[in-house]
Amino acid sequence: MVAWLVPIALFWSLAALYVGGAAINIEGGGGGRQTLGLLLLFASYLGVYTVCGMALTGVAGAAFGGIVFPVLIASISIPLLTRVMFKLVGVSVSRAD
Q1: What mean pLDDT comes out for the span 57-61?
Q2: Helix, strand, coil percent values for the chain (each to nearest 5)
Q3: Residue 28 burial by CB count (10 A; 0-12/13-18/19+): exposed, middle or buried?
Q4: DSSP secondary structure string, 26-40?
Q5: 50 by DSSP, 3-state: which?
Q6: Could you tell me how far CA 15 lies from the centroid of its own chain?
Q7: pLDDT at 34 over 80
Q8: Rounded to an integer, what distance in angstroms lies between the CA atom of residue 41 and that of residue 35?
Q9: Torsions phi, psi of 90, nearest 5?
Q10: What is the pLDDT of residues 35-54, one digit of tens each?
Q11: Do 53 and 66 contact (CB within 8 A), yes or no?
């Protein structure tokens, strides 16, 4: 169960860097919808981590296939997951011009 601490702790730092610091515009919806979008992003991030962990554990071993590679794949997918999850609640995420 300690393995879940790595993706959970890493998510909040990465989400803060991407959503708060990247050159993107978040438009539409109030604070409630944006918060709901962030919670959906968190759930989808953990979902990607879980699926990748189950798929890669047998291939790459317990340490790398169970923690390292799934965290890397889930972290790389944050921009795509952000656009999809925020769109589900009616918030538009686009590049800043």
Answers
A1: 73
A2: 80, 10, 15
A3: middle
A4: EESS-HHHHHHHHHH
A5: helix
A6: 7
A7: yes
A8: 10
A9: 90, 20
A10: 999 999 999 999 999 999 88
A11: yes
